[in-house]
Automatic annotation (TrEMBL):
Species: Pacificimonas pallii
Domain ABC transporter as annotated: residue spans: 54-288
GO molecular function: ATP binding
Part of the full-length chain shown: 300 to 602 of 602
Localization terms from the record: Membrane
Membrane topology category: Multi-pass membrane protein
Protein name, entry field: ABC transporter ATP-binding protein/permease
Residues of the signal peptide: none
Keywords associated with the record: ATP-binding, Membrane, Nucleotide-binding, Transmembrane, Transmembrane helix, Transport
Main location: membrane
């Protein structure tokens, strides 16, 4: 099914399927927000990935003419490193991931992967290089095995199981009466938010992309689920360049760099420790989340 996403035209087909209630992809489309006018330039070459270093260089972007959303964003994620983005709702965090996946073209500036402008390479090759674990995962009304296997066409049952193990969802799946053959999705077994997210992580581990975008769920998960997801995310991040859109600061204290966004600009940046020492917006957010008491896990409390 991944093939469907290569030619954007095919998205229309998927959209009609959703309308018919075949699959619940509303959240995916909130992220995708299909834009038919994004086209490959004539003679576009495939992206050649060598490590998967990502760079945004003075990126300006607006969805609508009258409102700038990104106003001069520059940052880089070295190959294999993790950069986290935080900031108030509407600051433009998820927009960064949509731009990296090239759902939208930018107004000015440059976005590169291993030095190649993402606007100059084929979209198929770009999207093959990026795995997204979205806030809310889309499950097809099919077996859980299919839902994971969809990460890579032709994956064997053993590969699907290995990905599920890495994502810490294998034991849960085997506890179901029909195991990997259990039908999930709107018309099948309803999985919890945390279980769905681990299926998405397994799918992404199977896809094995050099670049990962993690869009953390806004809704708070219980601490047991949160811990399982963090472990599974860590497995997915191994050796991959990662951009994390975070709401709970406790999950990103290890990031190589944290970007604090406000109103389309990066207003603070640095490691967790450096940002705390700076006693600015990030330090305030951290203090606030700690007093709210719903985000501090063991690693967070030690910092
Ligand atoms: P949150 O933490 O709530 O997810 P965010 O920082 O990720 O927020 P974005 O989703 O990047 O924010 O949105 C940035 C701004 O762009 C918001 O003000 C939003 O209303 C606007 N926006 C997002 N998508 C569109 C769109 N398709 N058309 C027009 N405006 C949009």
């Amino acid at each position: 099914l991944m093939q469907l996403f290569r030619p954007l035209d095919a998205l229309g087909w998927v959209y009609r399927s959703i309308k018919q209630g075949l699959v619940d992809m509303e959240e995916m489309f909130r992220l995708i927000d299909t834009r038919a006018e994004i086209a490959d330039p004539p003679g576009a070459a495939p992206l050649s990935v060598n490590g998967g270093a990502v760079a945004f260089e003075d990126v300006h972007f607006r969805y609508e003419a009258d409102r700038a959303i990104l106003r001069g964003i520059s940052f880089s994620v070295p190959a294999g490193a993790t950069v986290a983005v935080v900031g108030q709702s509407g600051a433009g965090k998820s927009t960064l991931s949509r731009i990296l996946y090239r759902f939208y073209d930018i107004e000015s500036g440059r976005v590169t992967i291993d030095g190649q402008d993402i606007g100059a390479v084929t979209q198929g090759s770009l999207r093959a290089a990026i795995g997204i674990v979205p806030q809310d995962t889309v499950l097809f009304n099919d077996t859980v095995g299919y839902n994971i296997g969809y990460g890579r066409e032709g994956a064997s049952a053993a590969e699907i199981e290995a990905a599920a193990r890495a994502a810490q969802i294998h034991d849960f799946i085997t506890s179901l009466p029909k195991g990997y053959d259990t039908i999930v999705g709107e018309r099948g077994l309803k999985l919890s938010g945390g279980e769905k997210q681990r299926v998405a992580i397994a799918r992404t581990i199977l896809k094995d992309p050099p670049i990962l975008i993690l869009d953390e769920a806004t809704s708070a998960l219980d601490s047991h689920t949160e811990g399982a997801i963090q472990d599974s995310l860590r497995a997915a991040q191994q050796g991959r360049t990662t951009l994390t859109i975070a709401h709970r600061l406790s999950t990103i204290t290890d990031a190589d760099e944290i970007l604090v966004m406000a109103d389309g600009e990066i207003v603070e940046r640095g490691t967790h420790a450096a940002l705390l020492a700076q006693a600015g917006i990030y330090a305030d957010m951290w203090a606030r989340q700690q007093t709210e008491g719903d985000i501090v896990d063991d690693s967070g409390a030690k910092v």
